[in-house]
Design goal:
single chain, about 110 residues, alpha+beta, six-stranded antiparallel sheet, globular
């Protein structure tokens, strides 16, 4: 993973090795259920929006997940944006959020 940070926003993506017939939305929901700092705010066929609660580093964040099939699995793109639009620096919270989502998805999918 190679997160890109700019003005308090973080963008990253990763591949998951999963069977082609897996229900990606259900898998992401299961992973989010294991991470108490996130809750699902919007759930569309090709996108899911999560909300992260407030903490010491940020006033809360919106996490947008999009996915598409790739050879041998699925690619997940993650965009983390602060709720407070004037935020210029998130003290690494966006990267920590991407890592938490990646770890939760890896734990659920086993890969």
């Amino acid at each position: 993973m190679e997160a890109r940070d700019r003005l308090g926003r973080t963008r990253d993506g990763f591949d998951l090795a999963v069977p082609s017939d897996i229900d990606v939305r259900a898998t992401i929901r299961a992973a989010v259920a294991q991470t108490p700092q996130f809750r699902v705010e919007q759930d569309d066929p090709e996108q899911m929006v999560l909300r992260r609660r407030i903490n010491w580093a940020a006033w809360g964040e919106t996490v947008q997940l999009t996915w598409y099939p790739v050879s041998g699995g699925v690619h997940v793109d993650v965009l983390v944006r602060p709720v407070l639009q004037t935020t210029l620096h998130d003290w690494g919270q966006g990267r920590r959020d991407v890592t938490a989502i990646h770890q939760a998805l890896t734990a659920v999918t086993g890969g």
